[in-house]
Structures are given as structure tokens and as C-alpha cells.
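Hey, quick one: can you model this chain's 3D structure?
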Amino acid sequence: MPDWLITYKALLKPLKCMQSPLPTLIFAGPSLTPQSKQLIENTPQATLCPPIQRGDLPDWLEQGFQGHIIIADGLFGQTLAIGHAEIREALQQGCKIYGVSSMGAIRAYEMHHMGVIGIGQVYERFARSEEEDFQDDEVTLLHTPAPECRALSEPLIHLRVCVEDLIQQQVLSKIGGQEIIAQLKQMYFGDRTLYLFQQLVAKHTTENISTYIDKFENYRIKNSDLTHFLKRIFLKSDFTLSN
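Sure thing. Here's the predicted structure for all 243 residues.
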């Protein structure tokens, strides 16, 4: 069993002692905000877990977990990503699984026909067939190890949302915005930083975009998707979501 799972279980009451509403696991890291962390900390039945990887769900199921599972962030590359078979097994054992923000949104899109519920703007973008160039790489970023999970680069989807706003505000032309996205898509995801993004935008406009960069938090829809969902389920006790 992974050390983090032992640590989390040692800090919590046994799951069998938890009362309704059902216990909820939240697998998240760089998509967390101070507000979403506070929501989790203030909810007794909620357990914050690091970004999910292959083997995490089976470990919880072996301990008898039954309840809600929220998948936001996940690891890949340095470790195996969470598998579809693991999610299917959790569903078959009665867990309700929600995908949001990042890896969770991807798996929800891939497995919505099996009952995984997709939430938020990121999921909706994966589900929109007209965006043919929208791929898994959109949500990928570099971050420090758990528990900090501090972002070291900016996911393409956030830069894309900013470009869309700059076009709407007539700071960029549509063609200029398309060229910027095309350049970003060709880059290694770890090189996509706000500093580099500003340099790319500066080649297509004479306007000062510092005010847009200063409010860049507004474009971080991975983070806002998770925060809004946690508000809904923990503050309003509203799990009435379905595909």
C-alpha cells in the first residue's frame, strides 16, 4: 500500500464509522485553490488524496471504500496513469465517480457511457466534437511533487481561454490567436509558461496585455471547475448529477 494512503487513513476515522453523506475521495493537486482546499478541510467526510495514478483505486477498494470519488488531477509518464479497468471496477463495486478539471475530465469523456460523470468547462471542451485539435495535452503541466503540487508551467487550455478573450476584446486578431495556439501546441508542455506566452502575444499586438496577465486566474478553468463543483457538493449537498 502506498505511504500516502497509509498516512491519510491514519489521519481519518475508519470509513465504516463515517455517516451520511457518503465519504468522498478527491484526487487533486495543481487544480486545487486555497478555497477548494478549505472546502475539503471543512468537510469531515472528504479526504484529499494526491493526483491519482495506477493502483490507487484498487488500494482504496481493498480497504472497503464505498462512496463518491472525484478525480481531478492524475500522474502519467513517470508512473502509469489510472487505468480504465480500475475505474470500471470501482463503478461495479458501487462507487460514483466524477471527472473534472484534468485527468478526471479526460477519463469522464472516455467513459461517460459507463457512468463516469463529467463536470465543468474542461470536460465540456473534450466533449465538443467541433474542437478537433483539442487533445489530452491541453490539460498537461509540470508541477512539484505532492503535497505541494505547485504549477511550474501553464496548461494549454488556460492559455487558449486567454487567447479567446483577447480575440473577443479585439486585442488579437483571430488569425493571430490561431497562430499563437498552433505554436503552443508544438511545444513541450513544460515550456508553456506565462512569460513565454506574453512574448508570443507581443508579436501579434501592440497593446499592453499586462492587465490580462495580472488577472490570469480568471482563465484557469481547471481550478475553477474543481472549486465550483466542490462548492456544489459540500455547501449545497448536491450530488444530483448525471450524464
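One thing worth noting: Residues 136-221 form one domain.
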